Batch of 2 targets.
Target 1
Amino acid sequence: MSGLSYVAVDWGTSSFRLWLMSASGKVLGERRSDEGMTAAARTGFAAVLQSHLDALGAAADLPVVICGMAGARQGWVEAGYIDTPAHLTDILNGAVVVSGQAREIRILPGIAQRDAAAPDVMRGEETQLLGALGLNAPGEALVCMPGTHSKWVKVRGGTVERFATFMTGELFSAVARDTILSHAVAGAEEAVDGDAFRAAVAAAFAAPALSANLLFRVRSRQLLFGGSAQAARETISGTLIGVELAAGLAEREQGAPVTLIASGRLQRLYQMALEALSIPLDAVDAEEAVRRGLAGAAATIWKK
Amino acid sequence: MSGLSYVAVDWGTSSFRLWLMSASGKVLGERRSDEGMTAAARTGFAAVLQSHLDALGAAADLPVVICGMAGARQGWVEAGYIDTPAHLTDILNGAVVVSGQAREIRILPGIAQRDAAAPDVMRGEETQLLGALGLNAPGEALVCMPGTHSKWVKVRGGTVERFATFMTGELFSAVARDTILSHAVAGAEEAVDGDAFRAAVAAAFAAPALSANLLFRVRSRQLLFGGSAQAARETISGTLIGVELAAGLAEREQGAPVTLIASGRLQRLYQMALEALSIPLDAVDAEEAVRRGLAGAAATIWKK
């Protein structure tokens, strides 16, 4: 192998991100595309990966470590799940080899909560946790990872004890696109209406049972009082996030901060929401976290 | 006019129902189609109505009373709203005449709650309320009218004091059709899995903030433990209805029954849900209610 350089890949359902990494953890090159699991399942995982490696001129013997949906049953090679309570080290030990490839390729497993009363799965977020918290982080953390399927995770001394997935992001898309509220948000600009968002977070946090009513009020308000598409969109977003926070924050120890692992727009929204509720937070960039997690995995797998 | 016979029409967003009624309130003929407001706005309201009257051979001078979305701004003739607190008599007084027609045609107004903190609107349900409760029903009623947009209404002595719309039915469609859960429910049979439904109602009623997590568990459960598409569908349905009940029943006086105005599958589901929570209920058939409401309107408008 070319020293200890390696390739790190975060392979989601609908997105593909690849970094060419130096031994010291520096990003030497980067590729992003929408060839996530869904697309790659059609065109071939090996071909997608090789095309991006070729584009970067990556050496033929560089090893590759992958996290995310490439390890799902419908992915490239099934990498299974580590069961809760799951020490983050177990993820590294559970890495699966993709056989029949010229270079060494490993896919990290996900984590499963095989609790019949609260079954849950994650795939990709375990690597973000590893990167954000490290292998043996002391003490307890309540981690929020917003997304299409937001995760709230309780970690103690490097062990994932419990977690819960909230399909908040996907609900937002479905409500804004496929219900009567699509008319209310039509033409909304990209900028965030902070006032509408914060008011919606507070209302939903205080009365989560009202969620389906708070959503309908977006339409009633426009009909009776007018209002911008932007305010409508942020009210839908704030309502759904407020309900999620009502459940997620119930797990928080009094006064303890929430570790928020997020990037971009979601980072801004969740930070605004937590601040609106006066909840202290430690912000960690999600992309940096997954890269650090993959770096940790590469170091453990190939430096031994 | 031909005695006191008349035509009653319930004209919703996506459905059209017409009854030829005798003076004594007997149904003499009936028509149903999917020419709701959305379709009729394209083909013409007058033409749609006339085609159904022709099919029944209705006399040219029979008067027509209409409730529902035909009175919306995007409908036939805007019939406006009566504001809360709204006595049900006010609906009758607010009926709007469709001008330029050979026969007499009236459209009933909706009800608006012009409360900036809880804006809401109904159109069609006010006529069901009139039919179910009568003009001067003594005492207080908490009414649940399930649907695409469920209504919960507090009525006292014939006056609609407050109401709230929950977009439960539309959320169900969007979640089951346009999210990752569409895979979980694919191929579900029409029969109801009562156990899965009741368990989901109870779980969501107890912890409404968890709703987006309870929904995602449908997928996790199938992935880790298997389970039928039917159970998945009823769990989604029960979760969304359970959250709605947590909010709607908060308005209930201790021990008082809920007046459930519903038909068909929704009637069965909401009755099962209320019984699972040991809530007493008075069931009223929704179609009979709207017909009785339109009959009351016709009697007031044309018998004077």
Note: Chain B has eleven helices and 15 strands.
Target 2
Amino acid sequence: MTYDDIDIGYDVPAAIGDNIADIQTPALIIDLDAFERNVARMKDHAEAMGVRLRPHAKTHKSADVALYQMASGGAVGVCCQKISEAEALVRGGVTDVLIANEVADPKKIDRLAWLAESAHVSVCVDDPTVVAALSEAAALHGVTLDVLVEIDCGARRCGVLPGAPAVELAKAVAAAPNLAFTGIQAYHGSAQHIYDPVERRAAIDKAIGMARETADLLRDAGLEPAIVTGAGTGTHDLEGASGVYNEIQPGSYIFMDADYARVRSTEGNGTIGGFEHALFVLTSIMSKPASGRAICDAGLKAHSIDSGLPTVFERPDLTFASASDEHGKIEDPQDTLTLNDRLRLVPGHCDPTCNLYDWYVCVRNGRVEALWPVTARGKLY
Amino acid sequence: MTYDDIDIGYDVPAAIGDNIADIQTPALIIDLDAFERNVARMKDHAEAMGVRLRPHAKTHKSADVALYQMASGGAVGVCCQKISEAEALVRGGVTDVLIANEVADPKKIDRLAWLAESAHVSVCVDDPTVVAALSEAAALHGVTLDVLVEIDCGARRCGVLPGAPAVELAKAVAAAPNLAFTGIQAYHGSAQHIYDPVERRAAIDKAIGMARETADLLRDAGLEPAIVTGAGTGTHDLEGASGVYNEIQPGSYIFMDADYARVRSTEGNGTIGGFEHALFVLTSIMSKPASGRAICDAGLKAHSIDSGLPTVFERPDLTFASASDEHGKIEDPQDTLTLNDRLRLVPGHCDPTCNLYDWYVCVRNGRVEALWPVTARGKLY
């Protein structure tokens, strides 16, 4: 074999059937047993609450994961954040996508309407000028777009104000050719990561109140919101049990990350929903230069530290102390680590971490069972 | 044209010849004029100091940039951090790569020796067990590897202690078949980002002292260190003028980022080396939901916030206040922004930001002049 023979695939981190020890590091690995348990748990939660489950695919960006969520995890479809992300998943076989976000750029609006020729596509709006552009593009492509009005229910990000402004926008949607007013997007992103359950419930109670008020006003105006959707992993049980929301959009529950492990459950006595860590960055010790210190090969390009540093799975004696571009510094006070030892890091934040990789290496019983491409990696548009 | 006609290339953010206004956002753009001035400045600095320039390619991961640095920027070759990164650049035409890092895994050591059949490849060591493995792999592939001993000169990351331990390791390298002892790697990473010039010089003065002591001891032992290499953008002028180092490894100077803009020059009266911002994340306003607040389409997956939030280029009236996965919140106290307005963000940290993108969109005089692939994006192994 010459060097050129490995042109294709030389950076695939493992082959199906490999032992875990043969995976090249750093690699993004899924513990399939834990992942499947997480998927089943959220399916059960949603069924028990009687709400639709539309998981957010921004977490995983994977057609394989999305199709598994729809086939086995009770999902009616998925959410995406960007049109290019939705395109990638539809190409991968996903048939129902809500862009749980605004699309304002004319080229992207055209792509959105175009995509609706191939799949059920819905989208959020918070601006009347976009309503006209969406309507025009939908007409051009001969489709009808389902449109939800996004309200700002506390995150101070996108969204019109709840109540009358939302009703005004819904009226514009309902009046626009080739658009169907479908309901309300009411997602409180920052509340997902409030660690304290009492404070978290207080934030979501306010969001529920705003969604309820808006839904009632819409009904008074003759605009039934068929869908009231929102919630994430951190608050899925609150919106889900509210009687106001009839759809939830959790994403991280399939993987869980180090930050979500700090979010106490609503009852205050465990992790949210009973979800467990199923996603890891597999890393190797590449230098053991001094007592108490080991250096691993997973730095800022291997996991995102925006929500804190990773933890070392099942190794409470070790601390991931700092990251540089391609190195992680591990405090190893008992000097247990030696060169080429491997550790599983639980990333601080799973969504931007997954976006760094081309492949999920899916493992079970110590072996590589599957390689799933990160279908929509880098799809930012 | 059907949807499937755009299967290839539908996520390329622009076409050559496009106006800047037609680039799909978020996109990573290079101001070619500023980039070329930065390359010329560092070439001049290195020539004036009489040291070799081996820019670090971990910043850009681009064969196009590396080849330009070698053809026009005075570079003798480049540095890489990972074997897969080096492989990608060698495939792109780069002929001389120093892995300015340790390679400990047996599979990676094999890949390293294999790569040395196609290019001049050198590597660092800080562990005697790796010396034996490198020697064996080099013999297997019929190559001689140039090996530098890395010393810990203050960063407390990788590297043997300076002085006698480094000499012992150098002796092992020199005695190993198919390895050539080439010199000392003495890079103080954390010093690059010390904003205060007096503190920064103090840290580097210590590093220079350790490199000098080690070089002298090596000479006493009959092991001439042909190369003493290190330094980054923040300290290139200090090691470069030391009389001890004869090679510098700056990376970020080509682009500059928001954090490097905070690093005062050694004279304390300007930015380091006179370098200017040449890399931007082009972003669009996708929501203008409330007075004082605008939301752009560049979040945590569009730039890395590990070294702080981005700044808004040439818009001191605007503040990038916070990022979520796909949104950036812009404080716009004078309400100047409207939907689909575009801004250039200076990323907080250029290296991990570049690693998020597939393409550099290179612009000059308001037009897209070139598209350069991020050749080694995601090459983490």
Note: Chain B touches chain A through 75 residues (CB under 8 Å).
